[in-house]
Amino acid sequence: MALYPVIMAGGSGTRFWPLSRQARPKQFLPLASKLPLITDTSARLKGLASVKDTFIVCGPLHAKAAAKLVKGLPKANLLVEPVARNTAPAIALAAVQVAARDPKGVMVVLPSDHHVADVPGFKRTLADAADLAEAGHIVTLGIKPSRPETGYGYIQVGEALEGGGRKVQAFKEKPDLETARGYMSSGDYLWNGGIFVFRVDVILEAFAKHMPEMKKGLDALRKAAGKRTFGAVLKKVFPKLPSTSIDYGVMEKASNIAVLPGDFGWSDVGSFAAIPEVRPADANGNVVSGNLAVVVDCHSCVVLADKRPLSVVGLTDMVVVDSGDAVLVVPKDKSQDVRKVVEALKARKLTKYL
């Protein structure tokens, strides 16, 4: 069975300002290794799928960088959205292209900005998910929770399915702490990691059934797939597709959803506070990057220096980032609020820093 990875690279990553900018969002940053997250995402598929069968979906601003960072990607496999319309239309765009090549090919939809520590375990889980998908299931990977996390959605698992998966009982929104603790203690809940595996004909049928408002646009795209007219049709049709996530549009409605538990050192690297999950810390719990960073009497801090000296003294649980033209200082537990800095810069029309 041929697998067709689809790497979703349309995010803006405002929680990583000042490192992330409009032209260089989170997926293009080397946050977990020396390589950008999108490069790591593609590389961990080696031996499971060919780069010639890999697709990237992104916006016009990021197309050139995405193509450069995934070596060997065919030009035709770079799918550029005319406008951002959320994950359901983005996945549908990839599906029509895969279907034109292989009408029953198995798609593997992956965020471009996540980290996986156990790559062999990840590939084994994806292979098992592909077997489930081959049998007609729409498969989502559920991550075994390691803590009562309030920043993720959850999947309530149901009865076992033949092939190792479980039925999905329900999708749950991000919970409060008490609810998250209850999810953990019950053992019936997994984190929703946003990784999906399905046959292309199955997902296109699901779009037609559960998102009928997309049918006309999808039919037009399918007719034009592989033809010179595809770009013009895409530009006309795509902006009219509903801006809806795959979760709301299909996953919460379809009856053939399966969840496959995974435990492979996954992190969505959601903010600077998550950096210690994906990078080694020193004896005091500090993650320090940059030869000119000087850290004295600090504990559990994230310090990222650029090309000038950055000295941090006597801090605990703080994030300090120097990008060369801007500096961020924020408590780790407030790192999700960095996006508010971007909003403030926009309001003050300081566009050179966005």
Automatic annotation (TrEMBL):
Q: Which Gene Ontology BP annotations are present?
A: GDP-mannose biosynthetic process
Family matches, as Pfam families: ManC_GMP_beta-helix, NTP_transferase
Enzyme Commission numbers on file: 2.7.7.13
* Presence of the UniProt keyword ATP-binding in the record: no
Top enzyme class of this protein? transferase
Q: Which residues form the Nucleotidyl transferase domain?
A: 5-282
List, alphabetically, the Gene3D superfamilies matched: Spore Coat Polysaccharide Biosynthesis Protein SpsA, Chain A
Q: Which UniProt keywords apply?
A: GTP-binding, Nucleotide-binding, Nucleotidyltransferase, Transferase
- Keyword field contains Transferase: yes
Ranges for domain MannoseP isomerase/GMP-like beta-helix:
293-345
Q: Provide the GO MF annotations for this entry.
A: GTP binding; mannose-1-phosphate guanylyltransferase (GTP) activity
What chemistry does it catalyse, as a reaction equation?
A: alpha-D-mannose 1-phosphate + GTP + H(+) = GDP-alpha-D-mannose + diphosphate
In the record, the note on similarity to other proteins reads: Belongs to the mannose-6-phosphate isomerase type 2 family.
Kindly give the PANTHER family that the UniProt entry links to this protein.
MANNOSE-1-PHOSPHATE GUANYLYLTRANSFERASE
Q: What is this protein called?
A: mannose-1-phosphate guanylyltransferase
Species per Swiss-Prot/TrEMBL record? Myxococcus xanthus (strain DK1622)
